[in-house]
Amino acid sequence: MTEVFATADLIDEHGDALQSCELQFRSFGGRSAFHGPIATIKCHEDNALVKEQLNQPGEGWVLVVDGGGSLRTALMGDMIAAAAAENGWAGVVINGAVRDVAALAGLDLGIKALGSNPRKSAKTGAGLLDAPVAFGGVVFTPEAWLYSDEDGVLVSEQRLDPPKKD
């Protein structure tokens, strides 16, 4: 079951209780709106931890990857994204690049990233799991809630109910 929400309605109702990411992400996945509790990775041009996490059961969570804004290599491609969709992840937000853009569009997964680059990343496993990461004026804390749609990305310390329509 997918809850219907709009980030604009959430911010109108909850205002300053929400953080709004200032980065202008592109949407690459087949899901334009997604939400869930946050898991985090901080890595630079190395996607081994991303692959490891997304091959685990996602149970509706959103993986936030701080790739330092690098567009030199892709931190996720079609095979890792397909595993994420199969494993029940709601979405992935990457402060960096993806690849295999045409294939990503066909997956039932929310994917936001800064851009694309066909170059593969390193696979040494360098990085940090489950620690707060910050970009776009937002601190993404593990287990906080992320809400994303065509208008942007919001973060709440707790799960929000969709606003009631009058």
From TrEMBL:
<dbReference type="GO" id="GO:0008948">
    <property type="term" value="F:oxaloacetate decarboxylase activity"/>
</dbReference>
<dbReference type="InterPro" id="IPR005493">
    <property type="entry name" value="RraA/RraA-like"/>
</dbReference>
<keyword id="KW-0479">Metal-binding</keyword>
<protein>
    <recommendedName>
        <fullName>4-hydroxy-4-methyl-2-oxoglutarate aldolase</fullName>
        <ecNumber>4.1.1.112</ecNumber>
        <ecNumber>4.1.3.17</ecNumber>
    </recommendedName>
</protein>
<comment type="similarity">
    <text>Belongs to the class II aldolase/RraA-like family.</text>
</comment>
<feature type="binding site">
    <location>
        <position position="100"/>
    </location>
    <ligand>
        <name>Mg(2+)</name>
    </ligand>
</feature>
<dbReference type="InterPro" id="IPR036704">
    <property type="entry name" value="RraA/RraA-like_sf"/>
</dbReference>
<dbReference type="InterPro" id="IPR010203">
    <property type="entry name" value="RraA"/>
</dbReference>
<feature type="binding site">
    <location>
        <begin position="77"/>
        <end position="80"/>
    </location>
    <ligand>
        <name>substrate</name>
    </ligand>
</feature>
<feature type="binding site">
    <location>
        <position position="99"/>
    </location>
    <ligand>
        <name>substrate</name>
    </ligand>
</feature>
<dbReference type="GO" id="GO:0046872">
    <property type="term" value="F:metal ion binding"/>
</dbReference>
<comment type="subunit">
    <text>Homotrimer.</text>
</comment>
<keyword id="KW-0456">Lyase</keyword>
<dbReference type="GO" id="GO:0051252">
    <property type="term" value="P:regulation of RNA metabolic process"/>
</dbReference>
<dbReference type="Pfam" id="PF03737">
    <property type="entry name" value="RraA-like"/>
</dbReference>
<dbReference type="GO" id="GO:0008428">
    <property type="term" value="F:ribonuclease inhibitor activity"/>
</dbReference>
<dbReference type="GO" id="GO:0047443">
    <property type="term" value="F:4-hydroxy-4-methyl-2-oxoglutarate aldolase activity"/>
</dbReference>
<comment type="function">
    <text>Catalyzes the aldol cleavage of 4-hydroxy-4-methyl-2-oxoglutarate (HMG) into 2 molecules of pyruvate. Also contains a secondary oxaloacetate (OAA) decarboxylase activity due to the common pyruvate enolate transition state formed following C-C bond cleavage in the retro-aldol and decarboxylation reactions.</text>
</comment>
<keyword id="KW-0460">Magnesium</keyword>
